[in-house]
Specification:
CATH class of the largest domain: Alpha Beta
Number of strands: 10
Oligomer: single chain
Largest sheet: 4 strands, mixed
CATH architecture of the largest domain: 3-Layer(aba) Sandwich
Structural class: alpha/beta
Distance between the termini: 37 Å
Strand content: 15-25%
Shape: globular
Radius of gyration: 18 Å
Order of helices and strands: HHHEHEHEHEEEEHEHHEE
Length: 297
């Protein structure tokens, strides 16, 4: 934050008070979206104890690909020497949940066994460094998960319920306009609509899973800012000790934020096999998506 205050009309206290963000990671120009995604993917594969030859598909959620063609997923697969198909999902900050939702559906049809799902974004490349409204919010990052097909027995890990929706008529409140480089944002309106969308999506996913907020072990929301997360958790009736918030040192990393938050929760010892998790996101478009799952390795 102190680096930003040297060029913007702001200070550390102002940023923290309005966003909960103390710092952010900014990728070096050589650290492309592919580089970040490949690092995260390699770590996830090793952590899962999975042979690279077992990966059937790579899905990358990103709004900041290095090129229009081929996909970031193809580039990651090439870097890791994977013999796997791949595609990208661009749903901005909703990207990881959309990617995970699609990957789970592909596993369910029985044609694939193991899928690598990655969230990787360099959103600082989309923010005007002289715009206080957006420059303070975003950071760069990547994280990944390896998911596999499980047996359909009671208590097995997997998705219990989900929700996808949006209000594209409101896309103008957060967008990079065609032909322009930087994001534009209507902060107050985005806060109102994002909070409503996040809450409605989370509630719908819980209802489809046959669960209530009391049944949740962890709520892992998109790390947009502390005020949106706090407002959503309060409206859903989820206590603070069951909400994962790690944006203070990372900021909003778009599609990377939920898998990064999952990694934080796991590192803190907050994830246990059998836990009920609610992953909820909201992003440019304007869209939202949520998944209720039972965690397991």
């Amino acid at each position: 934050n102190h680096d930003l205050s040297s060029r913007l009309e702001t200070d550390h206290a102002w940023i923290v008070g309005r966003t909960g963000i103390h710092a952010r990671r900014v990728a070096d120009p050589s650290e492309t979206t592919t580089v970040l995604a490949t690092r995260a993917a390699a770590t996830a594969i090793d952590d899962a104890g999975c042979a690279r030859s077992a990966i059937d598909l790579v899905v990358v959620a990103t709004a900041t690909p290095d090129s229009a063609c081929p996909s970031t997923a193809a580039r990651v697969a090439a870097e890791l020497d994977l013999r796997a198909g791949g595609y990208d999902v661009n749903a901005a900050c909703c990207g990881f949940v959309h990617a995970l939702h699609g990957a789970v559906a592909l596993l369910a049809d029985g044609s694939l066994s193991t899928i690598l799902v990655i969230g990787s974004d360099r959103f600082t490349t989309l923010t005007d460094p002289h715009d206080r409204g957006t420059a303070v919010l975003f950071g760069d990052g990547a994280a990944a998960v390896v998911i596999g097909r499980t047996s359909a027995v009671p208590g097995a890990p997997g998705v219990l319920g989900s929700d996808v929706g949006g209000d594209p008529r409101s896309l103008g409140i957060l967008e990079t306009r065609p032909g322009e480089q930087y994001l534009t944002m209507d902060g107050p309106e985005l806060f109102r609509r994002a909070t409503r969308g996040l809450v409605s999506s989370a509630a719908a996913a819980l209802d489809r899973a046959g669960l209530t907020a009391d049944d949740l072990d962890l709520f892992v929301p998109h790390q947009a800012n502390a005020r949106i997360i706090g407002a959503a958790a309060d409206r859903l009736g989820i206590p603070d000790d069951r909400v994962v918030v790690d944006l203070a040192e990372k900021a909003n990393t778009s599609a990377a934020s939920i898998p990064l938050a999952l990694d934080t929760a796991r590192g803190d010892g907050r994830l246990t096999d059998g836990d009920h998790l609610l992953l909820s996101s909201v992003g440019a478009g304007l869209g939202w998506a949520s998944i209720v799952l039972r965690w397991g390795r």
